[in-house]
């Protein structure tokens, strides 16, 4: 998989791994890099079957496979321990890693994540699959923006958003890969195992998230043995982008504890 190691070259610096959502792109984390790289070694990567990590994903591809891929990447990079910051799908990957190799994680940051399917999110995925089946890739990306960002943010950033969508359209992932990744998200269920995860977790949720009800983060907080829940009123599903100052403040304060 394509990855980059950025930031501090101090051997004593802690490592922060940033794992994206459905899009899988390292570029998603640009709003966090300037602050993180001043103090930490930062790993960003394009998930397998997305962006600069081309691959034909296997049938029955699951979040567990994605966790194994990231663990292999860390082995390749010689990284023994790290914080994993995961947005949505990336948060699911972090929890799978915590179940598989808890000794590798210093902490987790779970952003608009969940531990089991819920009817609302599944409906959103079904709509996206229907749009994809119609071969309307441009409409798929426009729908994706509606899911990710609050209405006022879209209105105020339309030029930048249209430029981003044009880039994403040019590098649109293989349809079969996207469907397999959506299936992995739709079937993820570790609710009965949450109490087995002893890794410190910062859980960030948004009340205006169109994709994931913020109450799903409450379930995570109640189930995990060591967690802190922070709920933002504004930011939509991608508050890392739309409420950068608020999110970065929470992230840096969390990491500063270690």
Automatic annotation (TrEMBL):
BP GO annotations: nitrogen utilization; uracil catabolic process
Gene3D superfamilies: alpha/beta hydrolase
Gene Ontology MF, one: hydrolase activity, acting on carbon-nitrogen (but not peptide) bonds, in linear amides
Reactions that this protein is recorded to catalyse: carbamate + 2 H(+) = NH4(+) + CO2
Alphabetical keyword list: Hydrolase
Pfam family, one: Abhydrolase_1
InterPro entries in the record: AB_hydrolase (IPR050471), AB_hydrolase_1 (IPR000073), AB_hydrolase_fold (IPR029058), Pyrimidine_utilisation_RutD (IPR019913)
UniProt domain AB hydrolase-1: residue ranges: 15-125
Enzyme Commission identifier(s): 3.5.1.-
Residue runs in coiled coils: none
General function of this protein: Involved in pyrimidine catabolism. May facilitate the hydrolysis of carbamate, a reaction that can also occur spontaneously.
HAMAP family: RutD (MF_00832)
Alphabetized PANTHER family for the sequence: AB HYDROLASE-1 DOMAIN-CONTAINING PROTEIN (PTHR43433:SF5), HYDROLASE, ALPHA/BETA FOLD FAMILY PROTEIN (PTHR43433)
Family: Belongs to the AB hydrolase superfamily. Hydrolase RutD family.
Descriptive protein name: Putative carbamate hydrolase RutD
Gene source species: Marinomonas mediterranea (strain ATCC 700492 / JCM 21426 / NBRC 103028 / MMB-1)
